[in-house]
Request: fold
Amino acid sequence: MVKVYGLGVLYKDVNSATILKAAYDLQSFSFFQRSSVQEFMTFVSRTIVERTQPASRQSVKEGEYMLQVYVRADNLAGVLISDHEYPNRVAHTLITKILDEFSAKVPAASWPTGNETTVDFPLLPQYLAKYQNPREADALTKIQNDLDETKIILHDTIKAVLDRGEKLDDLVEKSNSLSMHSKAFYKTARKTNSCCNF
Amino acid sequence: MDGDKTALVEKIIKDLNVALMKTSQLYAFDIVPVDTNFRNKSPVICLENCLGIESWCVKHVYFYSHTKVMDYNCSKGKWKHQKVFTMDAKRLTELLNVALLINPELTSFWNKRRMLLQQSYLNIMSELIFSGLVLSRKPKCNDAFAYRRWLIGILFKEGVADNFLENIINEELRVCELAADKSPNNYHCWSHRSWLFDLLRSEDKHNNHNTLFIKEYCFSEKWTSRHVSDFSCFHYRQFCIKNLAYINDTFWKALESSIDINLRKLLVRQLVTNLPNNMTVEVSEEELLSYSEENLMNLLLSHSAKNCNCNVNSVSSCRKLEVLSYELSLNNELIEFYKCHETLWYHRRFILHEISAVIYDHFGMVRHNGMLMKNSCKYCSLNDKRQKQAKISQYDSNSIYGSILFSVILNHEKKFIKKRVLEGDNYAGRHEKYMKFVEGLNNVM
Reply:
């Protein structure tokens, strides 16, 4: 499947990251899971931006998902959550494009204090819908080759991105931003994923 | 189980069934992870036409309903013969509903439902809704698909009105699409979908199944282009391509207009761009476009080496070639865009296999156990027994491998493989080996 689940623009502060704007497509999840899945996507986006150096790109595989992160030198960051089939190159060109448009529209001074309600940037859902089919979107915008030379670092699991000694399970447990419900959901998901289903 | 707990479980079973009865628009069921019953509320949740139960009660409810059903009905061989009485039937349905929603992989329980339906305690339409609900949580449950097939089989036997049939088909397609979307490589769902079309063709109740074939062909094109590592859907695509062989002239035009591509033009373009250099054919693209199907096939494959004088149906083989060459160009694009996907290369194998089958067929040959053999003619059953030696002469194989179409295809493949190898796609080398050793082109490639 080629699918984008979420797109987010974040600001990376000294030791935390805040979401400035995000859009999600969660139709393929069951109704009761959607809110938890969304909380998780937000949580993981923040975690990963916090652990990415400025002016670098990362692609992180986790389970059946792929996280694409780009943190610019000015600490503005973009995250795209997709599945494995989604081409990395398209994902990163899209992030670059979105960040460029975002910085043109929203003044840099408001980034450190902004949040999802104060920031006015309504384009994300449109991009999310359009880039569900990367082949058509790519052909339309013709942005193939203007990906800058920043190297994309690939990681096979989220463990490689976390600081030494950190575990995702512990981070989830400690987090204040996740509801009880979502934590329970995370635990069951862990359990069911551990055995193979055909 | 003590009394308190039994009462609680009975209450949950009742709540769940009430929810099932009350809302006819339910479309999804799920188990919501909640560790403990800290709110002291009913664990049955019904929100926006979705039904859910909290996970803490699943263990108890499932255990209880499963044992009850087994106790009621399975003791000492009563399973098969027992006649169900009205009172029991209602109770039994309630228990079955709960048990199957939680764990649908219980064939005996589905059979119990079949029995209830045959004794008219259940009705087909609500059973279709119920099995759809089961599939919303377990999209790979073959028992549920098999049950649907059984139900639809009954409907077909009873005979249904045309517009009602239309609804049923649309509903099946919708359920299949949801199931395919929820879990990749969903073999059961795609084979269910192709079962439906086989049924329509064999029953021939639905007079315009050709329109549906075309619709499915277009649908599968869109779907496969977005699910590039899901071979089950590519297999369905292959089923759709094969179905196009049955459509007639009027629908052929409809097909071309619905994919909005001039298939002949595409085929000719591919031919012209891949003509080998040493070929002494001097035809321009415009000239080729004006050829009739028969002339085109004759040019591409020269004359057939059949023993009988039956006419070859060049229109149908030409159309097959057009469809396959379109498929090949789609496959090229997909492989170039989504690099390194094994599924796409497997689909390519299918396309080339089919193209060579068209060529062999034109020459009255068939590949059997890796050997080219003479095939008996499809039209006159002239089975030349004199020619016991099924092995073909050098002359025949030369005329096949020397034909223009064959060289064009080989040329196209060689170019493509070379390009992919340069970009570091390991599957390209494997594809070359497949062409050489499985399709038996070792001598010519």
In short: The mean pLDDT of chain B is 83. The first strand of chain B starts at residue 28 and ends at 32. The beta strands of chain B are 28-32, 44-47, 50-54, 365-368, 371-374. The two ends of chain B are 73 Å apart (CA to CA).
